[in-house]
Amino acid sequence: MTTRSTPLAPDLIQMRNIVKVYPPNVLALDDVTVSFDDGEIHALVGENGAGKSTLMKVLYGLIQPNSGEMRYQDRPVRFRSPGEAIAAGIGMVHQEIVLVNEYTVWENIVLGAEPVDWLGRIDRTRARQQVQAIIDQFHFDLDPDAQVDDISVAARQKVEILKLLYRDVSVLILDEPTAVLTPQEIPQLFAELRELRDEGHTIIFISHRLEEVLALSDRVTVLRKGRVIATVPAAGATRGELAALMVGREVLFTSRRTPQPPGPVVLEIDGLRCEDGRGRPLLQEISLQVRAGELVGVAGVEGNGQFELVNAITGLIRPVAGSIRVAGEEITHAPILARRRHIAYVPQDRGRMGGSLPASVVENAVMTHHRLNDALVRWGGLLLDNGAARRFTGGLAERFNVNLPSLSSPLRALSGGNQQKVILGRELLLDSPFILLDQPTRGLDVGSIEYVHDQMLAMRGAGRALLLISANLEEIFLLADRIVVLHRGEIVADVPVEQASIEQIGRYMLEGRGGVADA
Fold it and tell me: Peptide bond before 24: cis, by omega within 30 degrees of 0?
């Protein structure tokens, strides 16, 4: 099932001529008019910074527009807070999941709206029964008594949705609902969202994954630079057409990787073993090579050792056995700064690990460079040369096409795509033979993804060795020369991309070496 053809009740929500300006002069929403029908799944797509999240925050009462009007259920409304929106039946699930890990599923769902007995005490039995009834009604696969700390990211997202359903919300706004999910978790979530729609709920979701937009939604609205470009039925639309509307030009979804012979070994991992604090294996006998001019992709269901492999290479965890060498130098137990002379690293979380959101663009751009490049410092490295740092950052912004208000702006003032370009540019400008990329395009729009891919292939062409960890198999097949599959902390496959298929790699991911028989 993809989209449905039954008639929709018109205009549950109307947003007319919405304008939002962020000081001093950033026009986030430029006369936006859009409507959402009763009982539909409606997708919002656009480049990073196009205004999608801002528009939904206006609807949800998180921010106030400068002008414009809204109508809900044929009545004029303006929500001054999320509490007012929820009371009216509109709720929003943000990309950053906020739950109390020490509480159970049912305790998180009722938190703040607990039923009480005649003495004013929480009626725990009735609360759990109410949560179980909602789980059963919407066929969510959840254990109400499970502790949130022990459940998957996909399950936590379902808890966030159920929190709103428990409060009798009929309009659900979902911001990038699949951004942190594995490919195996997405179909179940989509089935549950379709069931919610068929029960009469309206779902508005923001997404960069156009194939998922087309599979799930009834209609799609495209925003570009704060304006509505088009609203189209999902049925009959193509990914290429939506991408062109988003960025204003054709976007290619085919591989631009050209064959080239690899050079000498740059990264060499031999017999690597890592354990947790209880002695349980995280990585088992990992042996891997990446050569100059080669891009190796690492695939695996999330939680099967990818993050631990990254942390072992970067020095955040210590292996109990094995060795890591880069360009012939042993770095297994080297300090992090010593590793940085050999390794460029683009982490999966640009806001928490890749940079400092409150710090300026300049400060983020020169991180690590100020320790390795004497031209950026004065007095023997005691002081940063601000002029040199600004010239360096200006050159980075020009080379990597970063759109920013000013060099002094905090990193958080940039869109997600431009934040990623700052971090990517910083790392690629390091004079290092090996580049480690962990989910480098997660949460980016198609135009930004195309740009990041081009930069990665350019580094490959320049003779750098690249290791790409990605949850997106299509991305790996577009870019990689070889594919390595991790399953339960072990490498279960290492195959040239020309000899592999997505179905075969998927079996390795799910079944480990047991996938060999059917491959």
Answer: yes
Assess contact for 106 and 185: CB atoms under 8 A: no
- The highest-level CATH class for domain 1-89+171-251 is alpha beta
- Sequence length of the chain is 519
* 167 contacts: CB under 8 Å, gap ≥ 6: 86, 91, 113
263-342+433-443+464-519 and 1-89+171-251 share a CATH fold: yes
CATH tag, 263-342+433-443+464-519: 3.40.50.300
User: Domain limits of the chain?
Assistant: 1-89+171-251, 98-169, 263-342+433-443+464-519
CA angle 351–64–413, rounded 5-degree value: 25
Residue pLDDT, tens place only, 361-411: 999 999 999 888 888 888 877 788 899 999 999 999 998 888 888 899 999
How far lies 360's CA from each of 143, 351, 398, 434, in Å? 44, 13, 17, 27
Query: pLDDT tens-digit profile of 221-241?
Result: 999 989 999 999 999 899 889
Query: In what helix (H) or strand (E) does residue 93 lie, and over which residues does it extend?
Result: strand 90-93
Residue 440: partners with Cβ closer than 8 Å, 6 or more residues away: 346, 420, 424, 452, 456, 468, 470
- Residue 345 and residue 433 in contact, taking contact as beta carbons nearer than 8 Å: no
Q: Does residue 84 contact residue 61 with C-beta atoms inside 8 Å?
A: yes
Residue 312 pairs in a beta bridge with none
* Residue 151 CB partners (closer than 8 Å, separation 6+): 105, 142, 143, 159
Taking only the tens place, the pLDDT of each residue in 66-77 is 999 999 998 999
295 is written with which tokens? Answer: 């891009």
Average pLDDT of 197-202? 92
Give the contacts of 254 (CB within 8 A, at least 6 positions apart): 478
CB 308, CB 280: distance < 8 Å: no
d(CA 122, CA 131): 14
